[in-house]
Amino acid sequence: MKEHVMNKRKASMVNNVGFLIAILLPGLLPAQAVTNQQESQPLQINDYRIGPGDRLEITVFELPELNQMVRVSEDGSISLTLLGKVEVTKLTAQELEQKIASLLNQQYTKEAHVTVFIREYQKVSVIGAVGRPGMYELVGPTTLLQIIAQAGGLAASATKEISVFRPGRDGKQTNIRINFDDLMFSGRPDLNIELQPKDVVAIPADQMLNVFVYGEVTRPGVVTFLGSRKITLLQALAQAGGTTQWAKKSRVTIKRKDKSSGQELQIRVNLKSIINNKLADIVLEEGDVVIIP
Questions:
Q1: CATH for 2-36+122-203 (3.40.50.720, 3.30.465.10, 3.10.560.10, 3.40.50.2300)
Q2: Chain centroid to CA 106: how far?
Q3: Average pLDDT, stretch 210-219?
């Protein structure tokens, strides 16, 4: 018995580690491995509440002519032969079976045996920098991390900011912003929100930007950086291999195009003062040209 419990604990730890890897490092796992990880965790759908867009297969054993496939309308109802319009939203499949059986027992037959099978579930959309963007079914309660894992995890180019666009009853859309680092690494389980039908999970791809470093550096040329993370003068020079022994560090120039006027600005910088912490490092902008004479 003790050995059985230990094995279960080990299996649970392996599943949790695999789940995090599927989200954070999708490039390290083939698609089949991610799929197998999902299949190893059975979905709990007994408590699933039917909603608009679900497709239901209804079978009545005593009255086979009532067997049909129906789609739940936007007002949360279905239309059934003999019974007409039936409200179904927020009912589980078992509760709907009981409701249809009760309606049939009142009008047409006694002790009707009804089964309801949910063929298609309500869906959410996952777009942007994930392994497999697309529409995903909400089979039971589904959290943000679970849907990201189903979508193949984050791509290497993904930003840290996730947006969940949620339609409201008034027709207006709300934008729930979630920082992925806060969600995963800062002990904020409250950010792992439960998704709702028609949510759109958007994960933007980070933009690669360029600055140019010329003159007395080891590797002059283009220096690339992620737009969300910025780059400073010292960081750009480090990527360029650092300055040479002939560099005049007190006479560095940054050429920058003014966004409003379009005119070129020249910013004079004493690099020695920045290195000696007498002057704050300068954040560079896309297209900046750094000249080390």
A1: 3.10.560.10
A2: 48
A3: 93
- Of the two residues 198 and 15, the one the predictor is more confident about is 198
State pLDDT tens for residues 157-180.
888 889 999 987 777 889 999 998
Question: In this structure, what token pair is assigned to residue 169?
Answer: 């009853």
Residues in the chain: 293
267 has which bridge partners?
254
Q: Dig out the tokens for 89 from the structure.
A: 């939203």
Beta strands 123-128 and 114-120: pairing type? Answer: unpaired
SS3 120: strand
Q: Considering the domain 208-292, what is its CATH architecture?
A: Roll (3.10)
Query: What pairs with residue 194 in β-bridges?
Result: 143
Instruction: Establish whether domains 2-36+122-203 and 208-292 are of one fold.
Output: yes
pLDDT per residue as tens digits for the range 228-247: 788 999 999 999 999 999 98
Task: Give the integer Cα–Cα distance in Å for 70 and 76.
Answer: 12
Q: What is the third-level CATH fold of 55-120?
A: wza like fold (3.30.1950)
Half-sphere exposure of 29 (CA within 13 A, CB side): 24
